[in-house]
Structures are given as C-alpha cells and as structure tokens.
Amino acid sequence: MRIPIALFFCLFVYYNTPAQVKEPYEPVHGGNYSGLAVSGSPKMENAAWIEFDSPDLADSVDMSISEYDQPPAYPSIYPPKIGAPKKYGNTYRLELNTDLYEGVRYGWIHVRTFSRPWHITAVRLVCQTQPANYNGTFSCSDTMLTRIWYTGAYTVKLNLLKDYLGAILMNRGDRFSWTGDAYPAQAASMVAFGNYDFVKKNIDFTASQSNGIRSYALYWVLSLIDYFEYTGDSATLKNYVSNACAKLDDAYTVYGTNPNLEYYGWDERLGAGFEHPNLPEPQNAYKMLSIRAWKEFSAAMSFYGRTDLRDKYNNYAREKILALKKDTAWYQGDLAFMQPRMPLQPVY
Amino acid sequence: MVPGRFGLHAAADAVTTRLLSADDVLPGVYNFVTVYRGATPRFSEPAWIYPASCTGLDSITGGNWGGAYGKDGYLLCNYSGNGSDKENLPPYVASINYYKIKGNDKPLNAIWESNTDDRRALAPDTSNSFPRNATCLYAMDADQIGYTFTSTISIKGKHDYKISLYFLDWDDRGRKIAVEMFDAATSNLISPVEIVKSCLGGAYLTYSYNKSAKFRINMVRGDNAVLSGIFFDPPNTDRRPTASLRLLCRDEGTVLRHGDGIDSCDVYGAREAIVNKVGDSFYLFYDGAGKDGWEACLAKSTDLRNWIKIGPVLPLGDSSRNDSKAASSPWIIKSKDGWHMFYLGTAHATLAPDRIPAFPYLTMKAKANAIEGPWIKQYEVNPFTPKKDSYYSLTASPGFIIKYKGAFIQFFSGSMMDGNAIKRTLGIAKTKDLNGSWKIMDKPIFPSEEQVENSSIYFDQKSKTWYLFTNHIGITKDNVEYTDAVWVFWSKDIYHWNESNKAVVLDSSNCSWAKGAIGMPSIIRVGDKLAMLYDGAPGNSIGHMKRDIGLAWIPLPLRIY
Question: pLDDT: is B393 or A106 the higher one?
Fold first, then answer.
C-alpha cells in the first residue's frame, strides 16, 4: 500500500547568506553603476530569489542577478535579469517571474543615485527545493567515488523544484529539464532519494517532449525503464508502452539512414551541439543508443510479461548487431561516444 | 529460506543479467549481498598528453606583427571589409575556412575603424606601416549558441608550423575569449583550452602543430568573441627538433644567489645544480664560478628554499691534471663502501675572470665517507673517456647515476662535431664496479640532433615510467648557442627512449625570473610533487656568468599537455 505524503508536493524554502559582499564592485563595461556585488557559494547555483532589508531606503534602486561575476548583458530578446525590487515592508525583493525563482549565483544592488544615506541590514538568497530525504547511501574504499556520488545526489536535490526537475538556463529562462537531460538526473534521484512519484511526474511531463532530438526520445524510454525497474510500477509502464514502442519503432525505421539528429552532445566530435549533429560519430552513437534501448526495453518487457514485445525488440537489436558484426569496417576511429550514458545538456 | 519468489531477468539473448525481481514477498527486511571475485583493477592515471601546444601569449607586440609573426604567411581577418580577408598564405596551407551556426554559416564581420594610426590595429603588411584597418570577425547571434565560431586551417599533408591568432578588444568591451584547438580531421581536442583574459592592446596566442587544425573562438566575457588575424611561422628559428608538449611546472623563483660563497667560491656565478637528500637535509652541489675557476661547491637546506653555503668541495688539480681548469658538476651515489662522485674535469677554460670550462669535458672520480666530504680525488680511476668517431667524440661528461638490476647506469652527456656544429645527446654507461671502468652503449639514447645535455632521472612507480629531465641547447638568430629550456623525455624501458616522447618543462614562458638562459635540472621528490633545482641568468641574459639557482615544482602525477 502506498501512502501519500502530503509534503511531497510542497516546496522547501530556506535562505542563504552571501558568501561575499563587495563594495564597490567593478562596474560592468559600458555601465555606470555603483553598488553592492553579492556572491553565493562558489560551487553552487540555486533556484532562488534575492532580497535585502533596509529600514530607511527612500530612493530607487535596481537589482540584478547572474551566473557570472558581472551583471549580465544579454540581448533584449531574453527575459531581463535586472529590475526594480518589489517592496514588502522593509524587504526589497527582485521578482523577475511569477515563479519567484531564477538561477542565482551572483547578485547586485545597483545604487545609481540617492538623496540621503541609507542602510542595508541584511541580504538574502531565498532558495527553494523539494524536500527529500537521502534514502540511498553510497560508501566506497575509494573516497573519491563516494564524494562523486554525494555531489551528484546533492546536485539533483537542488534541482527538485515544485513540479519538475529544474534546468535553469539564464538567458532563455528554461524552467524544466529536457528528456535527455532528465534521464541521468531521474536515475540518480531514485537511487538517492527514492522519490519515485516525483520522477513519475517528470516522466509524465516529458513523455511527448523530445524537442526534435532523436536521442532524447530514446533517453525518455530508458528513463521509463529505469523507473519501472526501481518501482515495479507496471501500471505506469503499461500506460506508456505504446508511447515507448512508437519511439523505438521510429528509431528502427530511421536506423542507418543518417537521419537528422538535431543534437547529440556538445563535444566537438559529436558535432558541437547543434552545429553539425549529423556527423558520422553521432550517427554511430545514435545507432548504438538505439540498439541499447531495444535491448533494455526487451528485458523490461520480459519482466512485464509482454513476450511479443520482448521478442520484437530483441530481434531488432540482434538484427542490427549481426549486421554490424558482418561489416568489419563498420566503424573507423575512436569509440569514445559509442554508448553515451550521460547526455550533455543542450542550450538551445 | 526467504519467502517469496526472486528472479533475474534479461533480454532473450542478453549476455548480462540486469534486473532482480522479488514477487510475493512478505514484509520484512531483506539483505542482498553481492560478492565480487578477483582483484580490483588498479588504476594508473595516464599522463596528460596533447599533440599540440600553446607556446605563448604575447600582449606586447600589438598590431606591429611584421618581423615578429607571419614569416611564412598571414591572414588579416575582414581587412578588406564585407568578410573579405587580406591574405598571403604559406604554400603548406591549403585553405582557411570559418563556420558559425545560424545566419549564412559564417561569422559576422566588422570594421571598427579604417585608416587608423592606432598601433593596436594590424599593419597591412610586414613593414608595420600606417594607416591601418581595425577589423575583426565575430560571433553574436540572437541565440546564445551563436556566440562561438570556428576557423579551420587546412594543411597540405603534414608540416610542422607555428600559428598565431590575434585578438583585439578594440572598443574596450571587456572581452575575455576562450580558444579551443582541435585536430581538423578527428575533432579531438589537441591542446588545453586557453583563455585570453585581456586583449585591449591586442594579444597573440601561438600554437605549434603539424596537421590541419580547427580553432573554436568562444565568448567568456564582454560583448562577443572576436578574431582579427592569423599568422604562420616556422616551428623554430634554427630548425632544431622542438618539443611541442609541455609538462605542468610552476616556478617558484631564485633560491640560491651567487656572490657570497666562502672564499669567493661563487663570486661570478652559481650553476649546474645537483640535489641530493640525506636524512632530513638536502645537499646541493653546484658549480661555483670563483676567483680561481669553476669548482664544485656544496650548500645545505632543510626546505629547498633556504640554503646554507658550505663552500667548495673539490679543489682544482695541479697543472698536470685533467681537472686543472675546472672540477665541477659532481653526480654522486652512495654504495656500501661510501660515497662515490663522478665530476666534470677539464684542463681548458676561457680567460680570467670568467674561466668558463672548455671542451673536452671529461668524467673524473672522487670518493668520501660522508656527503659533506672530505672528497678524495681518484686520479687512478678512469670511468670513461671520449671516443673517436662516436657520438661522444668531443666530450663524455658525467650524469645521473642509478642502480638498476644489480648494475650502475649513468646517463652521461656526449657531444661530437658535425661540420662546424656541435651536436649533443645523452648516452648510457654501465658498470658493476664504481671504481672500475664503464661500458658505454654504442648508440645514444636520442639522436645527436636533439641537442640535449645533462640528466636527472625520476621513476614513476604508478605508471612504471621513467622520466629523464635534461637541458636543451637552443640557438639564437645570430647562431649563439645557450641552454634555453629544461625538457623531459619519458619511456617505459630505461634502455630505450623515443625522442618524440618529450615535453618542455621550463623555459622563458614559465620561468619567473630567467628569460634567457635556463640551465641544468636536478629533480627530487618531495611529497606529492617533484622539486626541480635549475640555474638561470636573471632577465634576458644568455651568458654563462652571474647565474643563480632557481626552484620549480612539478605536481604528481606528471601532467603533460
């Protein structure tokens, strides 16, 4: 019996004090500001808003945020990252969207003029994340591996936002991760936090969002398999069998035809993001990913009891593997990215 | 017995089983234990090796590239406007292309200012004349992925070359630019990412490579990433073999200055550092250029930074001896019967006061019961001598000694005349009796064209790799030879070395105080890094005199890039 936990869909809100406040900061090129530069942890960018307290501010100020150590100078097509703060009592909060969060690592309070001295009594970064306990643990004699595991888990924890896994891109202001990006994050989240319902919600949300990226469609299938393997939730699997089959069948249809992949990874060998995604290297990587997705789905169907689908996708995989084995020159060069487990986040 | 049904699941023909299921399991706590068999594989971090290298950033030359860059050819980006470059490409360059996503697949172009007398703008030709055009290519698309562009340099076949990219922040927009270098055919990253932190006055970033390359120009700060020129030069001025890789090394600066040694033993200079450790103390033998000539001197330290000079340890021989003009550069090794020293002796030197030792250099012997001496010369021992028609026909001077598989191996310096040129390399001498003669291997470990001398060995236990630190002899445009860098070679086999496995350790680009002559290295491990003692001449001097001893640090594992 599954017991709903009321807190699950709540947000945990807390605040961080700045790691550093600099006065005056070095003005951005082309700007003419004076004011305070506020920076957070050097290793963390968090979904948050920034605010300060002042009991005697009588003049107007602006506030801005950035991932970088200087105020952003993005083209006008992007949502602004600077604005006049809203006043709540003696608190001044930069509100750039209705969700009340941005990716904040650096913040500024821009004081351009003032008629009389005034004081700032506090500066805060108010963060939000889903509450999640560490249900998983990891311990290894190689402490570096242990540190990597917990760093990965913590990174995922920071991105457990209100409804979905977050992926804040400063320029465009994305709010949720794409399917390929979510694939490793969801797997890590289930291992570390056991928050299966949250992951299920993210799978639901991204079920039809591959953003034109063929590999991401397959990563969504792999995420579904991960979820099923961790939970045994056959009802959800059943709900998405046809969706997954459509994605897998499409991969079979275009296999070997050098389809437009749109994106495979930021590495230069994978086509440098959206520049050259259809080079031989990413095409080969996509083939390998297809075979892997068929095999894993076949295994899942074996467990689920759909022997017809088990055999179908296993045959797909076997057919392509046999063909590859017959062609000894099927691949020339390095195999560095033949089976990418961890897609890199696209910034498109 | 655990109630319920447990099963392992896999695809029909899967080799590995990946899913464990538990059905009809009663409530309770279950422990699943996985037992691994066999030994855990050991991980050896491989050395960082990049085929190309960035050899320097020049923020001084500005737009006056004539005479400094472009000896083989050049390209001035958008110099004629509308994206049209002014170019005079070398014969070995087939083409230069650009790419930027979106738009017309080309980077954008701009003429900041035409007919300017600002020296930051690239000169129109090698005469560095005025007026000039301040122009660039840049990337600044509406989407953030459009803030990067590439330039691909297609080389005909294989050809060693230097390429310099010129960046200019003409309008003071705080530009910081990241440059990535890839092999054009494989798209492999072939040199670490370089950041041009400021190019307000113009900055050249120079790389060495031998095949087609692709550069990615990325915005880090400022409005956009720009590129104003591409210049081609020969790989080096004298066509000697070069090392295109580098070993990560951080210079600390001078730690022992010449001039105040006992009895004026180093009044004219201190060089040829050789460091040893006994107990908690480091002992530094160095060549003191003193009032009577060059003699081996000794200093002592506990931290490698602060040295107490003990004074000369090897007096010059009388006029009948082969060490009458110099008794220097002592390599020592401890054996059961005490300490053994192999030093450089010569009966030839230049005139006073410099008294620089002159060829031929010979290997001579001394012994002592303690490292601080007294050292007793053994004129009766003749370790090895120059041999006619060999790679050590001119000199056969001592080098680093190790005990390896029951024998002593010495990496000695050998030189020979080739026409009017001196060629230098290293050879291996071997003996089981430190007071006997040494057998010299017929072939040097590197071709004599490598122009290296002196040696210091480090063996990395993890990677089972030998590293040989040595001194490279460069040459000026005026054909003046001088020790211009410390190099390192590496090999898995102590007897067989490949001259292509080499990297620059220290030269004028990363030495903080010596920008000309950088002399003999001596390596010793200290915790998780190597300490390297070396000599150098302050400033741009390439002279033999007034040198001091410096200290540099090399982190472990060694990082070659």
Answer: B393
